[in-house]
Amino acid sequence: MPNTYTQIYIQLVFATKGRENKIINSIRDEIEKYICGIFYNKGQKVLAIYANPDHIHIFFSYKNLQITISDLVKIVKTESTNFINEKKLIPNHFSWQQGYGAFSYAKSQKEQVVNYVLNQEIHHRKKNFREEYIEFLKAFEIEFKDEYLFEFYD
Fold this sequence. Notes:
Blueprint: E1 8-15, H1 25-41, E2 45-51, E3 55-62, H2 69-86, E4 101-105, H3 110-118, H4 120-123, H5 129-139
Antiparallel strand pairs: 1-3, 1-4, 2-3
Helix pairs in contact: 1-2
């Protein structure tokens, strides 16, 4: 029986509930490592991750097609929320907003996207999350309505 071979690169973007700045630098690394572990346990490979205070970018190689992207995001959000709350990494309750963005890339764009994700701190000195996210939607020609976007307060 022939095997199935895939090479699909996806960048996920989702936000904290209420777009609150809950992911501070002192806990960012621990959260990123935990989320990478979730991906690994689901047969995926994270190529770059950066947890901003109010949103996260995860660029990964989508290998295990036995799990849908929406199911993977649900698991990542649920398990990381439980981890953050059980370890009391933040003083109050933590959760992610509903929804996410998933954007696909060609292999030739891999290095560029990795650099983009890892340089989020510098990038967001020039552009806020709302501007960034709307640019993604427009660049990928995704129709959207403002009322169905993340909660934006900037």
